[in-house]
């Protein structure tokens, strides 16, 4: 499905909607985000976290690679959201991701992992991964293909 958002809030709301449906289905457990800097990936993740029931503010993990958030509402047995940003990783990124423990993390059913710049580790991502693509269309316009 393709959506054009015309504000950061609209992108946040799309994330929130997808987060809310994830909270129910819990499928898939890996969400791979692709798109240039400033295309709205982090904004989307903030909405996604809200939709999952996380109240804490999500900040970009760019400088620390990965942050995890406990999901308060365990009614759906979802316990953790991992927000990963591979922007700064270079070289054998798949190997580094494994060293980070990512493959173990997404192998556990109580974790949801959302990854910015996920194309860098495409070869090790589970085949059920949901890919979402972001494109800059103009100052406030983003095309989001989910
Ligand atoms: P990324 O994580 O892809 O680098 P961010 O979400 O951090 O992108 O940043 C997106 C930037 O673009 C923010 O400064 C935001 O205010 C701005 N922006 C403008 N229009 C939109 C839109 N429609 N959706 C998302 N962000 C937008
Ligand atoms: Mg980002």
Compile the SSE list and pairings.
Blueprint: E1 2-5, H1 8-25, E2 30-34, H2 41-52, E3 66-70, E4 80-85, H3 93-99, H4 102-107, E5 111-116, E6 130-136, E7 142-145
Parallel strand pairs: 2-5, 2-6, 4-5
Antiparallel strand pairs: 1-7, 3-4, 6-7
Helix pairs in contact: 1-2
Could you name the key traits of this structure?
146 residues, alpha/beta, Rossmann fold, 7-stranded mixed sheet, 4 helices, globular, binds adenosine-5'-diphosphate, binds magnesium ion
CATH topology: Rossmann fold
The chain-level mean pLDDT equals: 92
- Element string (H = helix, E = strand): EHEHEEHHEEE
Global morphology: globular
Radius of gyration: 14 Å
Biggest sheet record: 7 strands, mixed
CATH class term = Alpha Beta
Structural class: alpha/beta
In total, how many beta strands?
Answer: 7
CATH architecture: 3-Layer(aba) Sandwich
| Strand content bin | 25-35%
The low-confidence runs, each spanning 5 or more residues with pLDDT under 50, are: none
CATH homologous superfamily grouping: P-loop containing nucleotide triphosphate hydrolases
Short description:
This protein has 146 residues and is an alpha/beta fold. It has helices at 8-25, 41-52, 93-99, 102-107, and strands at 2-5, 30-34, 66-70, 80-85, 111-116, 130-136, 142-145.
Structure description:
It is a single chain. The chain is an alpha/beta fold. It has a single domain (2-145), classed as 3-Layer(aba) Sandwich (Rossmann fold), CATH 3.40.50.300. 29% of the residues lie in helices and 25% in strands. It contains 4 helices and 7 strands, in the order βαβαββααβββ. It has helices at residues 8-25, 41-52, 93-99, 102-107; strands at 2-5, 30-34, 66-70, 80-85, 111-116, 130-136, 142-145. It has a 7-stranded mixed sheet with strand order 1-7-6-2-5-4-3. A hairpin with a 5-residue loop joins strand 6 (130-136) and strand 7 (142-145). Helix 1 (8-25) crosses helix 2. The radius of gyration is 14 Å and the shape is globular. The protein starts with a strand and ends with a strand. The mean pLDDT is 92. Magnesium ion binds next to helix 2.
């Amino acid at each position: 499905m393709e959506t054009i958002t015309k504000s950061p809030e609209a992108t946040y709301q799309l994330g929130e909607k997808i987060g809310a449906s994830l909270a129910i289905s819990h499928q898939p457990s890996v969400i791979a985000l692709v798109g240039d800097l400033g295309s709205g990936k982090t904004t989307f993740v903030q909405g996604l976290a809200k939709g999952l029931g996380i109240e804490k503010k999500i900040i970009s993990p760019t400088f620390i690679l990965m942050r995890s958030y406990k999901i308060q509402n365990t009614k759906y047995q979802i316990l953790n959201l991992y927000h990963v940003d591979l922007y700064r990783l270079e070289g054998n990124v798949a190997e580094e991701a494994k060293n980070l423990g990512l493959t173990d993390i997404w192998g556990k059913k109580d974790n949801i992992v959302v990854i910015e710049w996920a194309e860098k580790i495409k070869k090790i991502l589970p085949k059920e991964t949901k890919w979402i693509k972001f494109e800059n269309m103009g100052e406030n316009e983003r095309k989001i293909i989910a």
